[in-house]
Amino acid sequence: xxxxxxxxxxxxxxxxxxxxxxxxxxxxxxxxxxxxxxxxxxxxxxxxxxxxxxxxxxxxxxxxxxxxxxxxxxxxxxxxxxxxxxxxxxxxxxxxxxxxxxxxxxxxxxxxxxxxxxxxxxxxxxxxxxxxxxxxxxxxxxxxxxxxxxxxxxxxxxxxxxxxxxxxxxxxxxxxxxxxxxxxxxxxxxxxxxxx
Length: 196
Known about the structure:
- By secondary structure, this protein is mainly beta.
- It has 1 helix and 12 strands, in the order E-E-E-E-E-E-E-E-E-E-E-E-H.
């Protein structure tokens, strides 16, 4: 996938000092334009029961923040790597192990620190897939944090927090009325096809 975005009269989140220079104000402000370039590659090979998906993407923003009083400096490309591992243990049981890593991200007036996360799940279906039980765990090592610095117009802001994305859960799904297509396997349309 390859894409380019040009946003005219962009509305961006930034911080400025008020008139007496003692209080910082965080708000959305209008700017002339904002550009970004994005490219991604994906592969989904199959090795028997192991069915991985490998994703790699790169984004590069183009926006001269220095002309607005920011000391952010030049933007650099940021990369995202995702490894989605799917294991087809049987026809009714699957497991996943997903790993994500993102390098330092440059966006608007903000630099975000690298992020890493890992999630896993296992699902089992019963009664011709009428009942499905799924056990999952997200942010297993509690490494997914929101850490960024905003280099605003004369003022810098910092944030470092845990968004509590680490969890373990159990999902039970039961389909009370499983229905199949009334057209599947009935030969619908055969008369019309023979006529043509």
